[in-house]
Amino acid sequence: MFHHSSKLQYNVRVDKPDPQFAKFLQQAIGGVEGEIRVAMQYFFQAMGARGDDKYRDMLMMTATEELSHIEFLGHAVALNLEGAPLTVQEEAAKDPVVNAIMGGANPRHILSSGLSAMPVNSNGVPFDMSHVYATGNLAADMMANVTAESGGRVLASRLYNMTDDTGMKDMLSFLIARDTMHQQQWLAVIEELGGWEAAMPIPNSTPQEHEATEHSYYFLNTSLDEPTPEGRWTSGPSFDGRSEFSKRDKPDPLGQKPSLGKARPHSGTQTEQQK
Amino acid sequence: MFHHSSKLQYNVRVDKPDPQFAKFLQQAIGGVEGEIRVAMQYFFQAMGARGDDKYRDMLMMTATEELSHIEFLGHAVALNLEGAPLTVQEEAAKDPVVNAIMGGANPRHILSSGLSAMPVNSNGVPFDMSHVYATGNLAADMMANVTAESGGRVLASRLYNMTDDTGMKDMLSFLIARDTMHQQQWLAVIEELGGWEAAMPIPNSTPQEHEATEHSYYFLNTSLDEPTPEGRWTSGPSFDGRSEFSKRDKPDPLGQKPSLGKARPHSGTQTEQQK
Amino acid sequence: MFHHSSKLQYNVRVDKPDPQFAKFLQQAIGGVEGEIRVAMQYFFQAMGARGDDKYRDMLMMTATEELSHIEFLGHAVALNLEGAPLTVQEEAAKDPVVNAIMGGANPRHILSSGLSAMPVNSNGVPFDMSHVYATGNLAADMMANVTAESGGRVLASRLYNMTDDTGMKDMLSFLIARDTMHQQQWLAVIEELGGWEAAMPIPNSTPQEHEATEHSYYFLNTSLDEPTPEGRWTSGPSFDGRSEFSKRDKPDPLGQKPSLGKARPHSGTQTEQQK
Amino acid sequence: MFHHSSKLQYNVRVDKPDPQFAKFLQQAIGGVEGEIRVAMQYFFQAMGARGDDKYRDMLMMTATEELSHIEFLGHAVALNLEGAPLTVQEEAAKDPVVNAIMGGANPRHILSSGLSAMPVNSNGVPFDMSHVYATGNLAADMMANVTAESGGRVLASRLYNMTDDTGMKDMLSFLIARDTMHQQQWLAVIEELGGWEAAMPIPNSTPQEHEATEHSYYFLNTSLDEPTPEGRWTSGPSFDGRSEFSKRDKPDPLGQKPSLGKARPHSGTQTEQQK
Amino acid sequence: MFHHSSKLQYNVRVDKPDPQFAKFLQQAIGGVEGEIRVAMQYFFQAMGARGDDKYRDMLMMTATEELSHIEFLGHAVALNLEGAPLTVQEEAAKDPVVNAIMGGANPRHILSSGLSAMPVNSNGVPFDMSHVYATGNLAADMMANVTAESGGRVLASRLYNMTDDTGMKDMLSFLIARDTMHQQQWLAVIEELGGWEAAMPIPNSTPQEHEATEHSYYFLNTSLDEPTPEGRWTSGPSFDGRSEFSKRDKPDPLGQKPSLGKARPHSGTQTEQQK
Amino acid sequence: MFHHSSKLQYNVRVDKPDPQFAKFLQQAIGGVEGEIRVAMQYFFQAMGARGDDKYRDMLMMTATEELSHIEFLGHAVALNLEGAPLTVQEEAAKDPVVNAIMGGANPRHILSSGLSAMPVNSNGVPFDMSHVYATGNLAADMMANVTAESGGRVLASRLYNMTDDTGMKDMLSFLIARDTMHQQQWLAVIEELGGWEAAMPIPNSTPQEHEATEHSYYFLNTSLDEPTPEGRWTSGPSFDGRSEFSKRDKPDPLGQKPSLGKARPHSGTQTEQQK
């Protein structure tokens, strides 16, 4: 069950409201790299977690933290929208600089939300829940989480560069820090479960006889004119300890030339396709 | 530039066409765990790759391979739809068993595509390109790719269990194998770049002074009644070699109680909100 | 800031797991009538609330409650999926009754989530955040909330009828009850603010001179052959106390016949459109 | 059956074309607060209306009116786009003021629609029909309609402030007026059906024994540190006349600590989750 | 301006209600081949039509007809849902045949719409307005319309085969007929404008010097092992009368090998990408 | 099976990088008129092609070419983003002209993709695969393809006008040329199959007795005050050679006034709807 306390997890201060930066910040709320995504992803993973309950607990705890991130970011967006012109008669609206800034602002912050945050990204596209990755497989979910936190920290770092408001930089430095921890936290689960060798290939429970293992360890070069890029993936032991990497430079198709033959009557096709 | 040869990358054989399994297979084409996603993800990552061109080449080669996976899966869907009833007059349509199967089939395989594959998932929801994760950051992109291949192999393993058609099992065993390789291949890039210690936190180019590092290495317990789940993430050195993990059991809010005060005139709010 | 405690807000018991009912329940999680919607709607309304802070607090408290509803519904979905066949070899899968049930199940509950809840509706369509209605206008938001809770209680009542599992009926009777309260709670805000007469038209802050009031109080009959349906909306005082209702039976267009004339050169049109 | 006459329902005049305002106006066409939404919502509600046919008629009549609103708004968008620069060679395009305006314009008005209206909102996001709320329950539908018209009038009021074109202000004053009527019209249906006491809780046909009425009339405070906001919702008779409001300050969870136990074999999970 | 009359454009009769066929029919309402699409497409094309007003009129007239098609199809869906089981206690619900049918039905027809039509396709995916193709170019729009009507008639023909209800067959035969006319009607506009030779290439107003005409008339064979399929497109005069068709069997890339070099500092990439 | 060679299909040169034009170019990648759409549309049509395999081959060859178009356009976007300001400290960012340009840029090109192409349109809306039209009917598919290429050439022509960069104009002139060929190529298939008379109505395999042919050849005027626009569609032989065109000026509804009567018990409606 969820509870709430009245103070924000982190302090939000905006020294110089900036409607364009409000639009940028939306990416951290409603973007695929944003906080709604991780809050909901960890929440649904927790609800579906099978096995040792400690991972379920861990997921729910961090899901709860991410809800608090949405909250302070939402406040930051609203504070950045303070003072945005609401009518063309306002002095501000006649200022060409303001005008240029407003050209880069999200009009729905004025028209739809009344100067507050929305669950959309910096293009105004609403977040959709298909980005909540929760497979029921603990290792696959951990990878999805490291991905989300990596994208999140890349985004926060870029936002940090795009403002010179010290309040906003302070808030973003906190987000950058928490994303550092969260990246590591999910990787730590993999390590606890025996590391890559034990965890891979994901899922590690797939019986070997379900796999055409003769195709499991070569890098396939599909280029007609480029040599195979050599690296850790073309030689040496595989990470799961089961084989050696190799490469295949000239891919020969292993299948047939496909053809579906004639169309059947009553199939809604042209008559010519049926004969 | 892309080229095509006429044979499939892998052989497709369907011994006993099954419209319901055709619907299931769609998840591997147009699902978030599917082949359109990885093909397009690696393609866009390749086009945006900066730094050593060998990673760009590697990404483009595997993007090209994934296009070939779409192709043979598309053929598998069409073959599973052979013989599906097109009219209620057909004998097959009167058979209760067929009826039960068709109840679980995707009606658009008959109504919209004329018995062939569509770029949708197993619920008939079209794939949308917001799932193409490409950040420009090589390590973040590699994580996204391991995620995609993990989800892909989980899916292929589950599909393998849901059919007893030997042709389909053979095809899926090939997919399972290639997903094994692709998971490892992207992790190998991380290893080449120095491993986790060098790569993390992602992005590793964010200056330390942009980060509130006092918040970077503790696990935050947000539960009111559960003890902190102990593990590799609560003690020991952090993976980036910069600090030690710790935990914080009683989170004190660090911020203010937010309030936006009165609404401004002309803001489209109720009058009562303005006074 | 959010917190979590380990027990569910309400007890979840499933006496007879039913994968088809798991699919139905998804409507209450990820449907437009569902709990993700209200949780996020109240949350974003709270973050944008201007005026008396007590409404902000009230919104945040109920947002938090709705998060707890997602949680117990998610558990209910997972429990309904216990025992669903994971392979075609399982005995269950050969049973025609099971087969019929599975035909009506969501295949992604097996293929994608591994027998647990997803943030999708009963058609498998992911929830998208465009359904989070938050205008910054308190009265408009209250109406949106009554709407959401009305749809929610309609849905819960229909779900109640579609199961005979006593555990599920018990859980749904709790949801029905809370939706009763929440409908009333949001209407009570309108009453506190002076009732309909004071609140309407929404927004009540729009100056009268911005409104063509000669068009504000008549019902327009646009039918060529039906008489105007008479009712409270065709006569008597308007609810805002400003005028009397009337009706207009024969709508005369008040505007011009529109024409855009010729297309401009360089507009990408056909040449014929330009002369 | 629908018919059309050649003149617009209301006169459209644009004194000073403004591509940026064309973008803003799109919110009133293809936004969730816009005219496509209400036209289609009333249309689908009418088609599904059961009970007294007069509500069906009323819904269809207003649906028809809303189609006419789309039409004149579409003309207003096109007129605002007259003269927008189509080539970088045009004089206009070299003017920095024009440039600033165009930076805030929707590029698809030039690239995709050839200077005319599109069924998208002011961020260019296409309207999607999931926003057509039609439950089959008359009272729930009326609430959805008041919501839509409230959002619509808030939007029209904000648009009114964002232009100083007298033609546009005149057109918007008409929209503001019609939204006034439509808000009242749908509320009047509730009054006709006996008012809130009779209508609530929605649906009022749910048998009392399907409801855990001990949970139906208290406000739940989920905050750890805020007192319950007192108001009409914490004491006094409930609006349905069935009970008294109360409050619950310290929510005790009523349910169990959830756990799903081990994962089953063949479930595509990690082996560790299965033991 | 739009008007409505009370009778349906065509008679709707359902002899044997069938919830599964109700789901199928949804494709003709809310599918990309359906009536919402053509109604809105012709409507938006009409509003943006520049040039001879007769095409604008024609588009608006047929848009209006298509609205009437939505209306009678919506009624057909509702009639097919009459009698669908609303509770598990109903006799019907215990019947295995009913059960099988309901497994193939759309649960939202019961849970969300209360036994009536929804603006969704046969998978329950809501129609989205990105499918309204309106370019401002008359010939491009005509092609889009022939496409929509071709898909529509293919769909109606397939639906005709999937029912043996004589009422439904009668209604579908009307739809098939109107789609015949509409296909021809839009092609007739092309003929009036001088036929293909005059209309192509679309847009025919693009100056020849904007086109690399040496690449305008050859078929490009991108296959490594298939001969060029010979046909009307590989030889003979082009349809625009400007050139001769030819073929190019061995595509030589005309461009460079792309590389973006190093990443810039502050770009949120890994450090290794910047050196 | 797909292959790749390292050079682009066409040369890409950007003389003066322009982040705003990068945003515009996205329409040609991820817009409905763009290259992802045609690549995937031809690919799925090829996989579902029944009848003469030469059309399947032709479709796959051009699908492959379109993948190469995505590739060079993606490079063009990245080159246009070179030099875009990444921090507010950069000199460029202080320049008002740069500022105005950035106001019109896509912030996600900085925040999300790190200065490279994304699978989105010029509003930042991701491409979704519902726009892949593939019906299994060869003629319907050809029409869809002419439509896509017409929209594509309209777009390329408009983009050509919106830049004065000679490199970009050169690249676009190539796209314009290939779209010329592709429009013709798909029409040529219709001609090969006997031309319009043989191909129409699509599908030409629908038995005449499934069609209410008395409604197949008249233009329906649904306007109350406009005369029927006369043209090739109101008289003369129909294109399929089966009949003569006519017109119907006064549409009489052919159907009943619809009514659904009372709602059933347990349907989740208001009690008043049930009596």
Explain what you see.
The structure is a homohexamer of 275-residue chains. Chain A is mostly helical. Chain A has two domains: 19-195, Ferritin, core subunit, four-helix bundle (Ferritin), CATH 1.20.1260.10; 206-253. Chain A contains nine helices and three strands; from the N terminus they run βαααααααααββ. In chain A, strands 2-3 form a two-stranded parallel ribbon. In chain A, helix 1 (19-30) packs antiparallel against helix 7 (138-161). The longest helix of chain A has 29 residues, at 53-81. The first copy, chain A, is extended, with a radius of gyration of 25 Å. The N and C termini of chain A lie far apart (64 Å). The mean pLDDT of chain A is 95. Chains in contact: A-B, A-C, A-D, A-E, A-F, B-C, B-D, B-E, B-F, C-D, C-E, C-F, D-E, D-F, E-F. The interface between A and E is small, with 9 and 9 residues. Chains A, B, C, D, E, F: Mn(2+) 1 binds at residues 35, 69, 149, 182. Chains A, B, C, D, E, F: Residues 223-275 are annotated as: Disordered. Chains A, B, C, D, E, F: It comes from Gymnodinialimonas ceratoperidinii. Chains A, B, C, D, E, F: Ca(2+) binds at residues 57, 221, 223. Chains A, B, C, D, E, F: Mn(2+) 2 binds at residue 66.
Gist of the model:
By secondary structure, chain A is mostly helical. Helices cover 46% and strands 3% of the residues of chain A.
- Largest sheet, spatial ordering of strands of chain A: 2-3
Structural class based on helices, strands and sheet pairing of chain A? mainly alpha
By DSSP, the count of extended strands of chain A is 3
Largest interface: A-B, 117 and 117 residues
CATH class of the largest domain in chain A: Mainly Alpha
Q: What name does CATH use for the topology of the largest domain in chain A?
A: Ferritin
What is the first-to-last residue Cα distance of chain A?
A: 64 Å
Number of helices of chain A: 9
Number of discrete domains of chain A:
2
Tell me the β content of chain A: under 5%
What series of H and E elements makes up the topology of chain A?
EHHHHHHHHHEE
How is the main sheet of chain A built?
Answer: 2 strands, parallel
> Poorly predicted ranges of chain A (pLDDT <50, ≥5 residues)?
none
User: What's the alpha carbon Rg of chain A, rounded to whole Å?
Assistant: 25 Å
CATH-derived architecture of the largest domain in chain A? Up-down Bundle
- Quaternary class: homohexamer
Helical content of chain A (DSSP H or I, runs of 4+): 40-55%
Q: Characterize the overall form of chain A.
A: extended
The CATH superfamily of the largest domain in chain A is: Ferritin, core subunit, four-helix bundle
Compute the average pLDDT of chain A: 95
Region (Disordered) (chains A, B, C, D, E, F): 223-275
Cofactor (chains A, B, C, D, E, F): Ca(2+); Mn(2+)
Binding site for Ca(2+) (chains A, B, C, D, E, F): 57, 221, 223
Binding site for Mn(2+) 2 (chains A, B, C, D, E, F): 66
